[in-house]
Structure formats: structure tokens, C-alpha cells
Amino acid sequence: MKKFKWLWWLLIIAAVGFAIWFWKFRSEESVIELQVEKPQYGNISNSVTATGTIQPVDTVTVGSQVSGTIKGVYADFNSTVKKGQLLAQIDPSLFEAQVQQITANLQSARANEVYQKSNYERQSKLYGVGAISKADLETALYGYNSAVSNVNGITAQLTSAKKNLSFTKIYSPIDGTVLSRNISEGQTVAASFNTPTLFSIAKDLTKMQVQASVDEADIGNVAKGQRAIFSVDAFPSDTFGGIVKEIRLRSSVSSNVVTYATIIDAPNDQMKLKPGMTANITIYTKELNNVLLISARALNFQPDSVLQKVYSIQGKLQENNAKRTRMKQVSKIEPSGGSNINADSAKTAFVWLKKDSSLVLHRIKTGMDDETQVQIISGLDINDEVVTGYIQEKKADLKNNTQKSPFMPQRPGRSNRRNSASPPPR
Which SUPFAM superfamilies match (predicted)? Predict the structure, then answer.
């Protein structure tokens, strides 16, 4: 009996060991899910980003050419003004007194001119009959000419004084909106050295411009006429459009970063954009519409030993060779009719196509690459199945997933194996 008892214990230990091995150490069967996609027609673009400030297209600063005390201010912030409208006035009393004084001097000079003219004419008659010498005649002529010159000089002074008097009234030079008012009634304006700025007027706020600061690494791709979009913090859900108008050659340096001012025209019909707003700008340096596209990760996919157990691999290409071949320039592609493809450098690349139970290496030619999608020049059509990666999952996990609620969070530690190419490096 003892002999059979030890036999039973051995059988029990063997069964327990098999159970532990079965549940813990046996290799579970897995399922490979191949990720494929078909080329599709769409739009692709390259762009650069920048920040900038919104400004009116045309801003005029209004100053004063004379000094004095502000007598009245007739325009305020945000006022809509017309050309020739009175904005402010400087106390004109001193200038009026100066005009009156010079006017009196002019009247005296004119009276002297009349006297000197009459004296010259009388001396001229006396000289004609030999009653006086020639020196007396020349003295009379000199007095008359001096009187005429004195009248002309005082007349010019009077014109200048009247002009200065007119400068005491500040008029708007354009139709527009007052952006800033830098004076108040009773304030003293001194215009002896620099012309003080009294008002700043924007000509038309329905036409704004964005002054973008574009980095020197990106400015080479920016050109006049390119499309741009931007957003402002005041309206985060709105996108505004514009066109690159000008690239200014003068650079600016801040924290060892060189940027160039790029002017973008921006319509403002809804009057949402206000001067001084900060804009986040995207400039589209190149755009292609209605071209054949695939994901960029398809160009970096490479089947490994896991897929070789399931699929027949036809062709072999090392990853480094694929990247080097992808960057190789092969030929120039001319624009084709009916599409917006610009002349561009075509590059040779390789992708893997799924054909039944086989993975076939296929050569293609690519164009523009935005790091997410790649333009297909030739080698693919919309019916091809291009492999981008695969997912390896255990059958037990798949079974558990079918029993779980889709609204429950996934349990951590799931044993999944993924093989998909990352986006190509910049």
C-alpha cells in the first residue's frame, strides 16, 4: 500500500507542475494584424511658422509746428475723423498779437515808401533843371529803394506770422480712426527741437497687416504672394487669412536669433483684428492640390522575422539603403496637365505591397514630403495595398477584449507587440 501511496503523490505533483507550466510558462499563440492603407488623392503643403503683431496698413502721426498751450481738444480715442477736420487748437493769442504788430509795422513801412517815392520824383525834376547835384538825386533814389525793400521784408514777416497763426489749429490730414491722443486741454506743447506727436490716426482699419518675425532658417522658402493663415488669442476658434506682401531686408537680432520682418496683408472686414494683437502665423511656402498621397511611415517600414513566419517576403532592402535611396535625386518631374504639381525633384523610394499572402518590395518615385504624408509621382495607384506596420497580439488578450466593455479603461501591462515606422526625421 505504501508503494501505491507514493505513486499517487508523484502523480499529484506532476499534475500540479503541468498546470503551473500550462498557465504561466507556456508560449501563447499570437495573432498578427497587418496595417495597410491605399493611396488617396489629397492636398499636401510645406509651411513655416512665426509670430507677429497686427498693425494698420497706413498710420499717420499728427504733430504741431508751433509751441503753446492747448486751448481745446476736439477728437478722442477711437474717434472717426475726416480729412480737414479740426482735432485740437493751440491758444492763438500770442500769434494774433504778433500778426497785429507786424501789420502795424507794414503800414508804417508802406507810408515811408510813399514818402520816399514822392521825394525821389521831386528830386528828379530838380536835377532835370540843374537845381541840385547828382549826389542829391542818388541819395533820394537810395531812400526810395530802401523803403521798397523794407516793405517787402515786413510783408514776408506778416505772411510767416499768419502761417504760424494757422498752425495753432490742428487738422486731420486723412480720413481715418484716432488710435491715440497724447494731449489734453491746458497742456503745454513745445515744438522748438522735435515735433511733438499729438494724435495717431489709422487710415483704414478694414485693411490690416501682420508684421511677422520669420527665422533666418525659414526665410529662404518665403516669397511674395504666398498664402498665410494666422490666429489671435482674442478669437482662438477663428482663422484669418492673408498674403505675403513684402520681405524686408533689414534683420533684427534677439537672444542671438536672427529674424526678418515679413509683411502679410490681412483683410479685416469684420473688424475683429485690432492694432497690437499678437498673431500666430503659418506661411505656406509650397502647396500641391489633388495629388496621390501615402503615409510617410510606409517608406520606412521593413518586415522582420515575425512577418516572415506568416507572409512570403519577396525582396529585401536594408533600412539604411532605403533611407539613402529615398534621398537620392533621380530626375526632374515636369508639371502634368490637370494637377497643381510644380516642377520638383523626384526621389526613388521603396514600399511593401500586400498581395494575397505575400509582401512584395515595390519601387516608387516620390515628390513633396510634409513628414506626415508623401506625394506619389509614379509607381502606385489607388488600388494598391501599402503596408505601414503590424500589430502582434495574443489570442487570450483578443478574447478578453471582446468581453470587456468599450467604456472601461484598459488594464496596464498588456503584452502587445507593434512594428510600425516612425515619421521620417526632419
Answer: HlyD-like secretion proteins
Q: How far is CA 375 from CA 15, 289, 328, 384, 425, in A?
A: 61, 10, 16, 15, 17
Nearest to 242 by CA among 210, 274, 265: 265
Q: Which of 184, 188, 163 is nearest to 72 (CA)?
A: 184
- Nearest CA-CA partner of 196 in 187, 205, 209, 207: 187
247 burial level (CB within 10 Å; 0-12, 13-18, 19+): middle
Candidates 199, 217, 205; CA nearest to 268 is 205
To the question of pTM greater than 0.85 for the whole model, the response is no
Taking 3-state DSSP, the helix, strand and coil percentages for the chain, each rounded to the nearest 5, stand at: 30, 40, 30
Q: The domain at 48-57+203-289 falls in which architecture?
A: Beta Barrel (2.40)
For residue range 31-54, list pLDDT tens digits in order.
788 899 999 999 999 999 999 999
* Distance (Å) of CA 245 to CA 241, 261, 278, 382: 13, 11, 19, 39
Same fold, 60-87+175-202 and 92-167: no
**pLDDT tens digits along 43-94:** 999 999 999 999 999 999 999 999 999 999 999 999 999 999 999 999 999 9
CATH second-level architecture of 60-87+175-202?
A: Beta Barrel (2.40)
